């Protein structure tokens, strides 16, 4: 049967806002995060501690973490590409951070100016240092379903990199369909190849909905027993170094499907729609989330 309960890992404030042309004022980001917390979201990636030259939209990471209200039981996380990022995250009071690498060389170079081998090394440094600080580290692997520059990505390479990431002690590995090219049978194949080596509980799915297949792929993951799904409020999101990457799977669409199938998320749908409405108002355009548009249209 299906899992009784899943975790939704919210990436809207990070993956969503990093890709928006309009940079939100810090206080508006804080309002958005607080609305997500009010909806019952428990795991939220609030920003990135990356180079502000590379991602100017998130240059206010420290200020955001000073402004945003904390609630017991809610874990905030942020992307960190290197030791400098980890140090910044720690000084901002985070107990968790996320490293990110690519399964294709060309995307790796464009995104972090490193080869895959160099990125693995940087992730290992972060994982080791974080363990010494008592911080948890999550990992992302991008371009698992395909690369905007190289196209096909061999599943053997994905398995090889994932094994190295898990061996570093990352508590969870989130598989990225960075440009939203995945289809359900491929998702089945990727999961079954990985599950030979990696425990199911360690895996999360990070699906972009560029071609409308994110929810179908999430359903494949759910049926295989995956219990963590990344999503972004209203479907905000993308990757500035992956041309054509659109929003992530919309949080409301994912929660609607899970709850409708009897899978608990702990999230309140009405409050989630309020958060989506706020996201839309702050960004100043209609967002792609289907449930959100249906709810607002009623
Ligand atoms: P670099 O320019 O190659 O390297 O950047 P560097 O280490 O020489 O650093 C250059 C400058 O940045 C230096 O400053 C550093 O101090 C500074 P300068 O001397 O020029 O004044 N710097 C930093 N500043 C603040 N915080 C830091 C930091 N590190 C260096 N942590 C680097 C290499 C990795 C830093 C850069 O390429 C970078 O920041 N890239 C981030 C790109 C990014 O955030 N992409 C989007 C997230 S990934 C994604 O969206 C995919 C995902 O959603 C999953 C999926 O969908 O597949 C996660
Ligand atoms: Mg992403």
TrEMBL record:
Keyword Metal-binding carried by entry:
yes
Which Gene Ontology BP terms does the record give? ketone body biosynthetic process; L-leucine catabolic process
Show the GO MF annotations: hydroxymethylglutaryl-CoA lyase activity; metal ion binding
Q: A Pfam family in this protein?
A: HMGL-like
Q: Which Gene3D superfamilies match?
A: Aldolase class I
List keywords of the entry alphabetically.
Lyase, Metal-binding, Pyruvate
- Pyruvate carboxyltransferase domain residues are 6-273
List the NCBIfam families.
PRK05692.1
Q: Which family does it belong to?
A: Belongs to the HMG-CoA lyase family.
Q: What is this protein called?
A: Pyruvate carboxyltransferase
Q: What is the lineage of its organism?
A: Bacteria, Pseudomonadati, Myxococcota, Myxococcia, Myxococcales
């Amino acid at each position: 049967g299906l899992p009784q309960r899943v975790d939704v890992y919210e990436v809207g404030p990070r993956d969503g806002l990093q890709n928006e042309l309009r940079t939100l004022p810090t206080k508006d980001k804080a309002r958005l995060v607080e609305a997500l917390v009010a909806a019952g979201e428990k795991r939220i990636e609030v920003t990135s501690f990356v180079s502000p030259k590379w991602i100017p939209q998130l240059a206010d990471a420290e200020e955001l973490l000073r402004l945003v209200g904390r609630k017991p039981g809610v874990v905030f996380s942020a992307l960190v590409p290197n030791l400098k990022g980890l140090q910044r995250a720690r000084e901002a009071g985070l107990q968790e951070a996320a490293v990110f690498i690519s399964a294709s060389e060309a995307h790796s170079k464009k995104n972090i100016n490193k080869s895959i081998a160099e990125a693995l090394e940087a992730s290992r440094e972060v994982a080791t240092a974080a363990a010494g600080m008592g911080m948890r580290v999550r990992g992302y692997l991008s371009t698992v379903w395909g690369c905007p520059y190289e196209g096909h990505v061999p599943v053997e390479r994905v398995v090889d990199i994932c094994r190295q990431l898990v061996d570093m002690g990352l508590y969870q590995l989130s598989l990225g369909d960075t440009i939203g090219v995945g289809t359900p049978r491929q998702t089945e194949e990727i999961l079954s190849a990985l599950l030979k080596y990696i425990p199911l509980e360690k895996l999360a799915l990070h699906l972009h909905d560029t071609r409308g297949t994110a929810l179908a792929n999430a359903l494949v993951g759910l049926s295989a027993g995956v219990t963590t799904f990344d999503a972004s409020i209203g479907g905000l999101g993308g990757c500035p170094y992956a041309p054509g990457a659109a929003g992530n799977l919309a949080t409301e669409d994912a929660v609607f499907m899970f709850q409708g199938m009897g899978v608990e998320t702990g999230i309140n749908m009405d409050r989630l729609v309020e958060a989506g409405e706020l996201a839309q108002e702050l960004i100043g355009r209609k967002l792609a989330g289907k449930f959100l548009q249906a709810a607002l249209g009623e």
